[in-house]
Amino acid sequence: MFKADFIRDTTSFDALASSLAGSQTAAELGAHNLSAALLKSYLVEVRIPSDRLEDTFRQSDDFKFYQTSPGFFQVLFDSPRKDESQGAFFEVLSERVGVLYTKDSGPFADSRAEKLSLHTEGFERLHITGPSFMGMWNEVSQRIPGYRFVEIGCRKDQIISLLAGQDFDLVDGRHESTSSNLVLRDTVSDLQESLTKLQAAYSAFRAIRKIRLPSRNGGGNAIYGNGKVTNRCNSLFDHRQVIAFLASFYGQVLERTERLVRGVGLTPVEGIQQGHCTLTYRFPQPFHVDFVEKLVKEMFAKGGEVKPHFQIRGKPISFKKGHYQIYGIDGREFVPINLEITKNHILAMIDRSVSVSGSVIHRLISNLQLYVVPPAEIWLENVNLLRLAEDAARSADFDHFDFSVLED
Amino acid sequence: MELIKDTLFQLNVLVWACTNGPPRGWLVRPVLHDHGFQIDGFDVAMRLSSEVIGGIARRVDCGVAPEPDVVIWNPFRKTRVLVECKAQSFSPASSNSRQCRALLLAAGNNTARPIMPEASETFASYLLPEIYRDLQEATLQNLTDELGPLVFPYHCGASFVFGLRAAEGNVFLHISHEDSPFDDYPEEGLPIFAIDPDEAPVPLYQVALCPDAMNGSVLSSTYSTLVFFYRLVAELLSAIREQEGVQVLAFQSDEILRRLLNRLDRFWTGPKRKSMQDFTHAAVYKILREVVTKKSIRSDPVAHHVTLDDLRVSTIRNKLMNLSEYEWSDAVSVLKGGG
């Protein structure tokens, strides 16, 4: 269950506030500009029961954790680098999600968060996909006054050419940059009107990687696809509201995903209930078979290694050019995952084991969207992932997300 | 396309055709599900009733315990179809006819396993390449005509043939109209894959092993061997992950088999399940022997245990992952080799 009252938990909140903003208490925070003090927070998926967290933290080479109150830890970094602060805070928000608060900026903060989410056993970064962002946007945008400005960022970092017979040009021995960032900054009502049309016209607009929501006192909080939330507002309170919402939303997305993976609610009358769940990632248009050949080469390394972009191991079996099957395994969680790759779609069959986490699904989607091509549609079983995300957003905790004050 | 003769391919086609799975039109069309059918069992061990057995004794050369490869069931029409998968047809003089007579009598007398709901009608059928459909229909007719007067007052069930035909880059499923529960099925057959010409009509296998695909220590086709090998290696890696922190890794053969059968194992209740378990048990040992020493493995009839005394989990994992790079010939040699 999400710890809905954590914002009102003044013990932990005061500890955080006092460390990050001097001697303030929760009641005083709204009046102070904290944007310089608290720059970034990183939500992470926690796969360890809370009573085992301290043990896990004790084994970490990179961090020292000291519990200051239940579920709230002061974090000290081993050998902080020059200009880096000595530590941060970690808070358990729910059974599934925790957050690392840090005052550091730029690469320091990103690097510490990466160490926690990628290299610490039992933690995983968030994978907020384009459809998840879209579902979140469809729900949240209805609660924000239409005149407020928001920002939506889309990013793709295409690693293969989608065109037949063509690879990316080499310039001075290096590939030219193929990454693109699109930023839409406009009023909520204008973006509500035009975002879907833009997405229909240009698939890169489906690769949403960031949404910046306005804050009540100006500025805002930007939510990134990896779970980072940057504070560009004048209120730690608002920042924590966004974190609370995101933790609740992502928890709902994972829970709904895992219910489908495990077949909960599917009845045998619908046909036999298979021992696997199917994920269908449909490309925006049929590509040339060359695209499939390049994609398979990029996804699967020889020698059992894991390609960093996709983290799936397996030996592709080809029936004809442009059609592959891979009976492989997720390289991070070691869950069997069987894939069919054609010029039209990627179909994944994933085991219904209880050990399969929703992250296996959302990591795969997130990487395909970023490094290959944003999808036309994604289906988990017979459920469109956008609908799943919209449902998750509707059920997320808005209790402390008081948009009404934005009217001021 | 040779695969349409392969039992494991045929069985997976039937499973997908009964599955209302991913969004429609994107994989195998659920043509049997659309007619209300679902999977009811695999390798179902049946036995003709003692009355039927007594009635036909010494009058006809007939098996008494048919074991259809697949049983499909329509709960709305209470119709059951007993399906035998074959690579080709056979003549009434063939040794296969003994089992075919049992299948016809099982269908005609509504034979079922006790746990199966009572059917209003049961059909006997064969699934084989379409080019053999006419011949097989003739055999079925011939055997039905022959049995009729001999087994009176018992009778043969209606029978029909499923035909698989590779054409236009797809596989078509044909079903006889007469004497089948598919009276509105198109005569020209239906393409069962929703694919375009650049895709091959081969589904991802839900089921990685079936008794008729086992031929000694190897499987009936290259593709079946590869699927079994890669999925088995993936399951071993997954089992290792699930046992983090232990000193002795346990590989339970029946649990691994369950996963190789895509958890459809509940439909496999007959004695052939034991042969699949034995096959899997032996294959697990052979693969483990490729990555750890013999003295590290302790085996009992249901599991293999690997002691990690001098071994690191990461070493075993890396060796397994390199194994999964094997081409099919290597996979066959691994499955053949070892203990």
Give an overview of the whole structure.
Chain A has 408 residues and is α+β, with helices and mostly antiparallel strands. Helices cover 29% and strands 28% of the residues of chain A. Chain A is built from nine helices and 21 strands. Chain A has helices spanning 10-21, 53-58, 106-119, 130-140, 188-201, 236-261, 289-299, 358-371, 385-395, and strands spanning 40-46, 63-69, 72-77, 87-92, 97-102, 123-125, 149-157, 170-171, 174-175, 179-187, 208-214, 219-224, 228-233, 276-282, 312-313, 317-320, 323-330, 336-341, 345-351, 377-380, 383-384. In chain A, helix 4 packs across helix 9 (385-395) and helix 6 packs across helix 9. Chain B is globular and about 70 Å long. In chain B, helix 3 (96-108) crosses helix 4, helix 6 (253-260) crosses helix 7 (272-291) and helix 7 crosses helix 8. Helices cover 35% and strands 18% of the residues of chain B. Chain B is an alpha+beta fold and 339 residues long. The mean pLDDT of chain B is 86. The chains are: A alpha+beta (408), B alpha+beta (339). Chains A and B meet through strand 14, strand 16, strand 17, strand 18 and strand 19 of A and helix 5 and helix 8 of B.
What is this structure, in a nutshell?
The complex is a heterodimer of chains A (408) and B (339). Chain A has 408 residues and is of the alpha+beta class. Chain A has helices spanning 10-21, 53-58, 106-119, 130-140, 188-201, 236-261, 289-299, 358-371, 385-395; strands at 40-46, 63-69, 72-77, 87-92, 97-102, 123-125, 149-157, 170-171, 174-175, 179-187, 208-214, 219-224, 228-233, 276-282, 312-313, 317-320, 323-330, 336-341, 345-351, 377-380, 383-384.
Order of helices and strands of chain B: HEHEEHEHEEEEEHEHHEEHH
Overall strand count of chain B: 12
Report the major sheet of chain B: 7 strands, mixed
Strand content of chain B: 15-25%
Please report the distance between the alpha carbons of the first and last residues of chain A: 33 Å
What summary fits the major beta sheet of chain A? 11 strands, antiparallel
Per DSSP E runs of 2 or more residues, the count of β-strands of chain A stands at 21
The SSE order of chain A reads HEHEEEEHEHEEEEHEEEHEHEEEEEHEEH
Q: Which class do the helix and strand fractions of chain B yield?
A: alpha+beta
Oligomer: heterodimer
Strand order of the largest sheet of chain B: 1-2-3-4-5-6-7
Uncertain runs of chain B are: none
What is the percent of helical residues of chain B?
25-40%
Mean pLDDT across residues of chain A? 80
pLDDT below 50 for ≥5 consecutive residues: which ranges of chain A? Answer: 1-10, 22-33, 268-272
Largest interface: A-B, 49 and 46 residues
